[in-house]
Amino acid sequence: MSKFQGLDTYRRRDTYELLPFKFDRLEDDDYVITNMTGEHLVVPMPELHALLAKKLAQDHPLYASLRAKHFIRYADEQAPLDLLALKLRTRLARLTGFTSLHIFVVTLRCDHSCPYCQVSRRMDSESSFDMTPDMANKALDFVFSSPNPAIKIEFQGGEPLLNFEMVRYVVETAKQRNLKERRDLEFVIATTLSLLTDEVLAFCHKHNIILSTSLDGPADLHNANRPRVGRDSFERFETGLSKARNVLGVDKVSALMTTTDKSLPRVREIIDEYVRLGFNGIFLRALSPYGFAMKTRRFMTYDTERWLEFYKEGLAYILELNKAGIPFVEHYASLILKKMLTSNDPGYVDLMNPAGTGIAAIVFNYDGSVYASDESRMLAEMGDQSFRLGNILTDSYKDIILSDALLDALEQSFTLSAPMCSDCAFEPYCGAEPVFHHAMFKDVVGRKAESSFCKRNISIFKHLIGLMQSDASTRRLFIQWANSC
Ligand code: SF4
């Protein structure tokens, strides 16, 4: 005799309740349903109709997944609500830490003259565009006012190595202060590597500093995108990369690329160049509507559709490489997949809600101005001071963090109440991006139906879900990516 009763004994007779979720159409008759914690399922239209009418049979293959992912519950069940709350708390846990990334713009001077430059750089002899020790001290007061136990200080420019003395000063002073503060302190220098010297490398090695650099693709493309006197940007990059890896270690140098109109037909070559140079991934980025990119109209030289073709071709090629045994990651996809496939949020500023501006990252400009984000100071360089939160020489931490410029932008752009976003099935994976929408529409909410940020993200979200649906090995690879960033 069997020790257990038949399956029917354990089936509930009462009907299920729907927990909050949203849905959107994918290809053909398939729909994706998502809930507030980012759980998702792909459901064919007939099943979606049955689900909504509370007529989906308990023995339907989707039923168990719908319960496991908290899309439905029985009326007397409390556990699904508790689990939803727990997952949501985990997702938003980062907010309690407050600002981690502090960007020090130590100079606007630069030895490059990139046409898409986002910071309106100055000639490399104009030292009036350098940060002073007084400003750096005040900025460090601000940094250590943040309650976050993990503090990252990133040096940007211009080319920060043109004011290396200030980099040195900030690192040494911050470390001195940290003897008492005992934070988890990390330093990054964003540099083209063109001015890297043995002295700089020895300093980076001593203080465990990471280098974040730029690589736009093969030599001719990189040099065309990044002109400098001598036309040797790529050669300097490659020499600097090799030296930096020797002294600091391979994992201490990362690279970012920017997509120009010249890059669009060459995504495979760009990825091949990253592979050739030993990088384990690439961040396929679109141009931002800021700084010289806007002034020189470079931002308008390709539309979102064309960029999406570029992105999808690149992603397909990266999947091919992985299937051929070459592990390689597309970082933007990884960040999104982390939100789709885990309970954690990667804390990527562009994909945060509330927006990451000011509360995840903040910028101290060379002149003491404090901005809500890197993009905010780029906008200010174009004459729009909307996201200037104050000045470290005259304003207190409270004045800056509680400024109307910051709080209004965070409140108004909050995606759970913003038009379109609040109804969007992809909201759990997206971000508020008030600065981008202000730059494009003069309104922090923006018109999402016309927003290239929205169009680009929806297309990528759907594409990633479609890829996972159509191929189990891609899904397994994406789970690895989600857990590696
Ligand atoms: S910006 Fe677009 S994709 Fe993102 S949440 Fe809003 S409507 Fe959805």
Give a description of the structure.
- The chain has an eight-stranded mixed beta sheet, sandwiched between helices.
- β3 (30-34) and β4 (40-44) form a beta hairpin.
- The chain is globular.
- It has two domains: 12-91, no CATH class; 96-314 and 349-401, TIM Barrel (Alpha-Beta Barrel).
- The protein starts with 6 loop residues before the first helix and ends with a helix.
- It has helices at residues 7-10, 45-52, 61-68, 79-92, 94-97, 133-143, 164-181, 198-206, 219-225, 233-248, 267-276, 291-295, 304-323, 331-341, 374-381, 397-401, 404-413, 434-441, 452-470, 472-482, and strands at 16-18, 22-25, 30-34, 40-44, 72-74, 101-105, 150-156, 184-190, 210-214, 253-256, 281-282, 329-330, 361-364, 369-371, 388-391.
- With 485 residues, it is an alpha/beta fold.
- Bound molecules: iron/sulfur cluster.
- The site of iron/sulfur cluster has 11 residues, from α19.
List keywords for this structure.
485 residues; TIM Barrel; eight-stranded mixed β-sheet; 15 strands; 42% helix; binds iron/sulfur cluster
Instruction: Give the tally of structural domains.
Output: 2
What is CATH's topology name of the largest domain?
TIM Barrel
- Helix count? 20
Give the biggest beta sheet.
8 strands, mixed
CATH superfamily of the largest domain: Aldolase class I
**Beta-strand residue percentage:** 5-15%
Which CATH architecture of the largest domain?
Answer: Alpha-Beta Barrel
Q: Helix content range of the residues, please?
A: 40-55%
pLDDT < 50 runs, ≥5 residues: none
Distance between the termini: 52 Å
Largest sheet, spatial ordering of strands = 10-9-8-7-6-13-14-15
Overall geometry comes to globular
Which ligands are bound? iron/sulfur cluster
CATH class of the largest domain: Alpha Beta
